[in-house]
Amino acid sequence: MKKVVIIVAGGRGKRMKSDTLKQFLPIYGFPILMHTIKKFYRHDNSINIIIVLPKTQIKTWKKLCRDYKFTHSHKIVRGGITRFHSVKNGLSKIRGKDWIVAIHDGVRPLVSLETIKRCFKKAASSGNAIPAIEVPESMRIIENGKNTPADRSRYRLIQTPQIFQLKLLQESFKQDYKSEFTDDASVVESLGYSINLVEGNKENIKITTPSDLLVAESYLKKIK
């Protein structure tokens, strides 16, 4: 099967407190989104890449590619009003049938090559694969003004890339949008399909705050 990744880069970045969209903020020499794209090319240099951006930011992204001499091949697609609609727009650009589709957050440049490989392998054999990690700290449940300990072994933190065989996504994204669609797995699961969890990597954080930028830059320096 052929591989394609839809990289969703439509976040406004309110928690970053910056006029620049967080996916365009520079860390370790390049905008975050460029680091993310390069990671997938390192996994497989024949992979097809679709970038989903807000309509108002496409011109800015093209200028950044010129300024940074960024030549990694990719298609650009306009984003929608929600992540669901943005992914749906990306899916509409895929031609053919024999594809495995990864959907990844543009601000997760620290996903490991091992995580990407595990997810593609599992999705190829079982239809889908979602990276997850164990909860590293104690948890408590708050209910009716009281709090009680939670068994953290029963919980997992979910990451991207979330990877699916194309026919599964096409069927799932024919549905109308629902507010409970918090990620791509929840869209597929709503049709009754089981979701396969695979091991993620703890460094694979979603960059949303200024402190995340510092952490990400530190990691990038170590792995270069």
Oligomer kind: single chain
CATH superfamily placement: Spore Coat Polysaccharide Biosynthesis Protein SpsA, Chain A
Outline type: globular
Total number of β-strand segments? 12
Q: What share of the residues does DSSP label as strand, in percent? A: 15-25%
Rg calc: 18 Å
Order of helices and strands: EEEHEHEHEHEEEEEHHEH
> Count of helices?
7
Span from first to last CA?
30 Å
What ranges have pLDDT less than 50 throughout 5 or more consecutive residues? none
Helix share bin: 25-40%
Biggest β-sheet: count, sense, barrel? 8 strands, mixed
The CATH architecture can be given as: Alpha-Beta Complex
Features:
globular, alpha/beta, Spore Coat Polysaccharide Biosynthesis Protein SpsA, Chain A, 25% strand, two-stranded antiparallel sheet, 224 residues, 32% helix
Overview of the molecule:
The protein has 7 helices and 12 strands. It has one domain: Spore Coat Polysaccharide Biosynthesis Protein SpsA, Chain A. Helix content is 32%, strand content 25%. A hairpin with a 2-residue loop joins strand 2 and strand 3. The two termini are 30 Å apart. Strands 1, 4, 5, 6, 7, 10, 11 and 12 form an 8-stranded mixed sheet that branches. A two-stranded antiparallel sheet has the order 2-3. Strands 8-9 form a two-stranded antiparallel ribbon.
